[in-house]
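Example record

The entry below shows one chain as it appears in the dataset: sequence first, then structure tokens.
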Amino acid sequence: MSKQAYLVRKVDEIPRERSTCGFRKRLIAKEHFEGANFTFLNVYEAERHYHKKTTEFYYVLKGKGTLELNGDTVDLEPGVLVMINPGTRHRAEGQVETLIVGIPPFDPEDTFFD
């Protein structure tokens, strides 16, 4: 059996899950593609954490807030993209909807708390 040539995902049809940063919908996860993950996130009561392997790209779609990065604060608003390298402690606050791309894909075992 051959692999399907494409995958179509609709955010409204994906189950919502609680995550470290809020409520997420996994558009593309490791089981879909080994190279990266794509996650739609509504920020809510995020916990400060870091990853040892994954680089995350936060692209703000809607809302305003802040992203704490190793003690620095970056303002978030639509159109802002932030790249978070491995080892960077981070936490988002505010009413923000983002698209997160993780390379390599998110792995729960690669989430660490101080």
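Notes for this example: Residues 37-104 form a domain with the Jelly Rolls fold (CATH 2.60.120.10). The longest strand covers residues 55-69.
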